[in-house]
Amino acid sequence: MKPYLSITLLCAFMGMSTQAMAYDTQLAQSYQQQFSQAKGSSAGKAIGLISAEAFVKQLQSNKAMLTVDIRTPQERQIFGLTMDNKLNIGIDELFMPENLAQLPKDKPVVLVCKSGARAMAAGTALRHLGYDNVKILKGGYGKLTKYVGPKIAK
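and the corresponding C-alpha cells:
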C-alpha cells in the first residue's frame, strides 16, 4: 500500500480530514516575505542579529534602546543585566498583552537569552507581529560574557 494512501485511510478511520494535515499557506507566505531579505552575508542583519561588540558599543554611546532578558527568573538569579532601560520578561510571558504593551516600536528592542536560541525564536515571532525594531543578541549571554572584560566594560 502506498504511504499517502495509508495516511488518508488512517485519517478517514479516525474521523480526521487530510486537509487538517496541510500547512497554513497564508502563514507560510507571510514568513516567506519576512525572510526574503535573509540572503548571503547580510542574512544575519536581515533577521535582526546584533553582535556582542555592536551591542556594547550601542550601550556605551547611550543609544536609545530597550534590552529584554527573556530567560527564566531562576536563570536571572545567577547573573543578569544591570543597565538602565531593561526588562526581565521570561519567554513564557513575553506574548501576554500587558508585556507586549511594554515593548516600544520607536526604538530598538534587543532580546537576550543564554545562547541566542530563545531570543531568535521570540524575535522571529515579534517581527512577525509587526515589531520591526527587534534585534537578537547573537550568541546570547555566552558571547556577551566572552566579549566583555575589564577593558571593555567601562
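(Above: one complete record from the training split.) The helical segments are 3-13, 25-35, 43-46, 52-60, 73-78, 97-100, 117-128, 140-147.
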